[in-house]
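lol forgot to send this yesterday, sorry. struct tokens for the thing we talked abt
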């Protein structure tokens, strides 16, 4: 185990030369040229990550039949949606009617850049060709019908947005249907604004997705998504909830590790051994764990039986502990942006379940990196 002290302008000796599936795809088939090819490329990357080719081949006939049956029903459904839609001239729009299909509802969408994007997209209104686009999407993904089924599902979920609004606010960069949704939206004069909703690394699951505007927290993520060949106009807009307010405490001591909720027993043993080493190196005896608010498993519960578990909120954690420790967690970035509010804790990044070379923003921002 090694602990690297980060200094301004220097980085830890971590290999950033990861081989991404999106690179492999481009080497084999070239850069996708349209939304259908982008969807196919993204699904290919996801299939490679999941290693599910045999399972997919078995269920392919059922997916194909479902997509084929869905096509005429979907065409009829979408045409009825468009009959109800009220279209506005883009030159007359000064305010947006937006519908949020994500919890990130404090993103500003009335900025000058959004208005210009809306006018650009609305100016290319091609409703008469939207049915043709749907048919092309079906035949273009016929050998990967799961994409078309995702596409149909999202249109159904976003139906009110297609009828009433100018902007769809989504968080679907992980979906291979995202490019099709953006393209169909452009056909009917609707802007798709995708917003960042959690920590991101260089994962080809998100590769090749396409949006009109993508709101991200930091310039690092612009470079990251461009590295993944995501096509979008990027907008820097971090939600206020990322910054955690200070909580008055009587003393500050120890380190706290933020679990992701997906750790296996092996992961937990590795992490705990590193925390013991870290505790000794930093002369901080108290080791506590914070359970993920959404994800957990029985192995974590068993592991924590004889460990210190912290049950307070982030405000109390950032105020009480000297060392904020984690792996692939949004909490570390929250600690970084919150420290500008007067916090004096130290941020430590360790490679628990993930490689630190996978585009992790905290490789640049953490005070210590442990590998």
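and heres what i got for the seq, position by position
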């Amino acid at each position: 185990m090694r602990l690297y002290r980060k200094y301004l302008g220097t980085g830890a000796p971590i290999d950033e030369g990861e081989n991404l599936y999106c690179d492999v795809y481009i080497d084999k088939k070239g850069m996708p040229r349209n939304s259908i090819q982008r969807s196919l490329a993204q699904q290919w990357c996801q299939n490679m990550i999941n290693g599910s080719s045999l399972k997919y081949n078995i269920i392919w006939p059922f997916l194909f039949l479902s997509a084929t049956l869905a096509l005429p029903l979907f065409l009829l459904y979408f045409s009825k949606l468009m009959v109800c839609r009220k279209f506005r001239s883009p030159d007359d729009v000064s305010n947006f009617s937006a519908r949020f299909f994500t919890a990130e509802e404090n993103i500003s969408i009335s900025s000058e850049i959004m208005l210009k994007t809306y006018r650009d997209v609305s100016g290319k209104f091609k409703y008469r060709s939207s049915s043709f686009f749907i048919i092309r999407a079906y035949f273009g993904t016929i050998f990967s019908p799961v994409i078309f089924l995702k596409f149909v599902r999202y249109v159904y979920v976003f139906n009110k947005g297609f009828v009433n609004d100018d902007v769809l606010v989504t968080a679907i960069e992980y979906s291979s249907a995202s490019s099709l949704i953006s393209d169909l939206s452009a056909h009917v004069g609707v802007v798709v604004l995708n917003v960042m909703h959690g920590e991101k690394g260089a994962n080809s699951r998100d590769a090749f997705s396409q949006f009109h505007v993508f709101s991200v927290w930091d310039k690092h993520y612009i470079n990251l998504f461009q590295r993944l060949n995501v096509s979008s106009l990027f907008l820097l807009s971090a939600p206020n909830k990322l910054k955690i307010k200070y909580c008055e405490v009587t003393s500050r001591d120890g380190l706290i590790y933020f679990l992701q909720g997906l750790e296996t027993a092996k992961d937990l043993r590795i992490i705990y051994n590193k925390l013991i080493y870290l505790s000794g190196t930093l002369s901080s005896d108290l080791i506590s764990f914070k359970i993920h608010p959404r994800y957990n498993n029985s192995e974590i519960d068993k592991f924590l039986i004889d460990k210190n578990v912290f049950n307070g909120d982030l405000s109390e954690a950032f105020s009480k502990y000297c060392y904020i420790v984690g792996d692939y967690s949004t909490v570390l970035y929250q600690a970084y942006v919150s420290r500008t509010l007067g916090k004096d804790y130290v941020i430590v990044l360790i490679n628990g379940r993930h490689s630190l070379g996978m585009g992790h923003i905290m490789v640049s921002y953490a005070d210590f990196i442990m590998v």
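The radius of gyration is 23 Å. anyway ping me if u want another try
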